Amino acid sequence: MYRKSQNPDAPEEAFELPFEGKLCEENRWVILANLIPWAEFEEEYAQNFSEEMGAPAKPFRMALGALIMGLRSLWL
Q: Could you tell me the pTM of the whole model?
């Protein structure tokens, strides 16, 4: 099952760090996130899931992020 996110295009500035920190714009993960057309991929990703059956799918951004970090850990 796929449920559309309530806030799919939340800006990176909305990400809160402990102690009121902020992500640096030169951070490699922030740069990578800005290069990915999230909305386009989210639409295609959603087509792979039923609207009525099954457990709700994780958002595309979370799924791709986990895949990227998992693959990165294999290279280290």
A: 0.64
Residue type, 19: F
CB atoms under 10 Å from CB of 25, counted, come to 10
More confident residue, 44 or 10: 44
Structure tokens of 71? 């693959």
What is the SS3 assignment for 22? Answer: coil
Q: Is 28 helix (H, G, I), strand (E, B) or coil?
A: helix
In angstroms, the CA 49 to CA 10 distance is 23
Q: Using an 8 Å Cβ cutoff, are 47 and 68 in contact?
A: no
Q: Do residues 57 and 49 lie in contact, with contact meaning Cβ atoms separated by under 8 Å? A: yes
